[in-house]
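Known limitations

Files may contain more than one protein. Parsers should not assume a single record per file. Below, a two-record file is shown to illustrate correct handling: read the sequence, read the token line, then continue until end of file.
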Amino acid sequence: MSSDGFATHSRDVNERSIRSRVRHAYIETHLMKLRATGEFDRLLETPRVHFIYLHHVFDDEAQNFRRTLSEVARTHQFVTYSKAVELVYSGKVDRPTVCLSFDDGLKTTLGASRVMDELGISGCFFVCPAIVGETDRAMVKRFAETRLHYPPMDVLSWPDIEDMLARGHEIGSHTYSHPNMGDVSVEQAIDELQLSAEELRKRLGGVKHFAWPTGKWEMFSARAGKAAFDLGYQSCASAIRGCHMPRPRSVGAREVCLRRDHIMGSWPLRQNMYFLARSVLNAAGNDYEWPEAWKSIIQKERHPSEADSGVIASKTGIFAAPGC
């Protein structure tokens, strides 16, 4: 930890509790059972699309991060995020396929992107434009405490993001200022989605993909999901564990909520691989779907009378829109 409280090592953010030790013991026990029966290898070799995501890769995590990617590559095909989305929509998956993404726009992901370059892997980095390039450490600390709910870390700058884009990585939207999208009004949710899209399009020329903060059902809503597609995003991703199995038919973008499996560079390699295997073990054919009560709302195309006027109704949250 730095003198002003910024996380600089994995130990600064890793949970150390009885709960985490119990969880670790459960994973190890289940993993041993899967390996003993040969099920573990079979699961990893199952054709599917698997989205993996992280938040940070500190220097002390880089070696294990590289090992994890190399191990995944032994049995999986890495593709770009956009290609993975395309495969999920088509349902045509004939081999284990994986892509990588990062949430929150933290500075350590710049180093992670260079590790990925070495291995020929392209990722998608979901950022919040309100905090990109912020050098006021008090502001970054406030953002971490009120929005991210973990220790503050340095954030990416716009030149960092442009550099990653130039090297073949993708940049996605993680809302404008990382609110709990389940707590805000529909109007505020639309503002967050629109402000982020407008800033990313202005600075980078475009944005295709969206992942909502924290990624749980209770931290999103059907109206927000509909708004994401209405505003032109081509995909919407959660942080709900799972993977996407082959299907006999294609589906439209509004029918799909992408599942992503969280891993960490500091976790043992076998545990990161365990989460991939477990998602396959628990997979069902309809795992791409939204909650039943949300479907009719999200899948309803925007009527021409609802067309975006280009006017943003309100600027809410701890960060105002650029220039406001």
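...continuing to the second record:
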Amino acid sequence: MIGTGVFTSLGFQLAVVQNTWTILLLWVFGGIMALLGALVYAELGTHFRRTGGDYIFLSETIHPVVGYLYAWVSLVVGFSAPIAIAAMAMNNYLRPVFGETVLPGLIFLVLIPAVHIFSVSSSAKFQNGMTFLKILFVLVLIGLGLAFGTNIESPALNFSGTWKDEILLPGFAVSLIYVFYAYTGWNSAAYIIEEVDQPKKNLPKALIGATLLVLVVYVLLQLVLLKHASVSQLSGQVQVADIAFGNLFGPNGALWVSLFIGIQLIATISGYAWVGPRVTYAMAKDYKLWKPLAKVNANEIPVRAIILNTGISLILFISGSFEQIMLYAGFILQLMSTVTVYSSLKIKKQEGFKTPFKPLPQLIYIGFSVALMGYLLVDRPLESLAGIGILFLGWGLYALDKKVT
């Protein structure tokens, strides 16, 4: 979960809302929504117990075409876009070290998926190691940022009452898309349920525990960034952590922070490269058009699906702009997660974990999500319609495809 979004979103948010209460409300609200989603996915994952995530959930509860559309979206957006965005962010943060070049992000985008073609155990060891370093690094940043006083005259911290006006702005809803994108990944453990030991106990623990931890980390990190930089410095910028810690520790300190942020994005790329191809693999076993991607190696790893996912990530990395890809991916991912949350309401007899207070969490998630997507459709129609266009293309492929008998 901890990856590109938390280190890049604040600059885009400050371009439309500046009150600190507003910023914190965005991150808390995003975390609550992710937590509600995590509860629902824990229920779905422990009920079906089949690798493939939303593809399985939607195919079984609503209709195979809906599951097909999700698998299609996962392939071209859901997991490839976050990889591309992380690689772009890596280039931005490593620019002080390597200069104006796309090579760092490009190299890691291609090489990291190769780690996951050998075995599940090697993938897990690599992912666990990189995640540990990532969390340690973020906690150190938060500790340093809270311990030291600010060096600038006008920090971005603003606890006035203007937040009451800002939360009614369309920009508040658009800013939520950046936040929801930053929380993307809260459902990932449900995608590899067949590889999880004691899923009834460990899946809810992983989904819910991680989401709560990330919520706290995200809120504290925003406070640190706002404390050590001004609105004018951060507004519209991608490398917000670089700017804030540059103010705190000077150019050399900023260089080290940039380097470590770039390195920790390896874990983000790795996580999506590991989990994403499992959704494509699940669909490939069921449909003739994708059947070649169902091929696995001796260790049951879907190598061809990994290669295709990496190829699409590479295309997005080369062709798109950072903000456009983030919004376009954010809209369509929010749409599909909302449909998946709805699908849990169609389960009549739950086997495994059950969402507390069901159906209230589902209804809250669906209601706010629909309102958010409506705002985004009005405010950013190009990116939103691009996401809808991807769905129509997937529907056309489904019409041409046939089930494996």
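Parsers that stop after the first record will miss the second one. For reference, the second record is described as follows. The first helix runs from residue 4 to 14.
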